[in-house]
Amino acid sequence: MSETASISMGVASRYARAIFDLVVEYDEVGELESNVESLSEALFNSKELRDLIASPLYTRDDQKAAIVAVGTKMKLLANLTNTLALMATKRRLFVLDSFLRQLKILIAEHKGEITADVVSAKSLTQGQSDKLAEAIKERVGKEIKINASVDESIIGGIVIKVGSKMIDTSIRSKLNSLQTVMKEVG
Q: N or C: which end of the chain has fewer CB within 10 A?
């Protein structure tokens, strides 16, 4: 990890921990989870929002006013909106994506869940996702939240990452292994 990424992650983690502790104190974790999902979706879907948080052309006051307007329009928790405003004032909105990921981790830990990142060649059905979550739950002993994504380049199979453990049954991985063996033989 680069030094810049490490510093950004540290900044995001500190803001996430601060807002999370406040939300736990006020028993608003469920609302925060909903807010984080909505804000993550907005960040993913809105080029304007991504430009706002990344562009140095906006002044601190412009960023603060805009992020407060976004928070108000989305009916985010007051503590979350205030934290975003503070981040804008301190020129820290560039870590918003990392901040939201850290909040998701804290919320999952609070709920006793573990997130499993699952990559498949095509979208999983709800039934497949449920069966996979149940199978992983049996192995780790905690509730599992599936974070599914699609990567057609794996050709087939599935890649599962839970914490520091990874299971790669993708065809791409098997072909790469076969290619390595073939090089060693020839």
A: C
